[in-house]
Amino acid sequence: MSNTTELNGGQEGTMPMAPIIINGQYIKDLSFENPTPLDSLSNSKEMPEISVNVDIKANAVQDNTYEVSLSVSADALRKDQKGEKKRLFLVELEYSGVFTLNIPDQNAIHPILMIECPRLLFPSARSLIATVTREAGFPALSLNPIDFAELYRQQFLKDQPMDADGATSDSKKDH
Fold it and tell me: Among the four residues 25, 57, 95, 115, which has the most C-beta atoms within 10 Å?
């Protein structure tokens, strides 16, 4: 198969390869716990406390091809009549994708794997979480959008030593 196409005017040229190719997306693991289904059907006026955790992992599959896994867990707790917190539900999803990166700059691969690839996976993971919670008899849990770039910055800055000026040692090397 050729990467050549005919351009306007009959000239031949080479189409550039897409920088990110999504080879496939899939549910790697999905778990839903509903430990007290009868209690969850009661009309409690108490709003549940829902904590959501997100984790991202990337593994090389072969040259320029990576599996990226977006793990999302949502734990819903509500106080019972005695004031004790009881679990309404726990949903855990590991949603993955296989991506081929045609990126010449090797320094850009890690941020793309940790920012752009999860951003592409998130809408499907969000939809799955909403569907599973709804089908389990709860209101659909609609996750708020996630700023993966900000999460990456927070993680990157956390891991970098800072000097008195608030600059990381890596940022000084670039300037």
Answer: 95
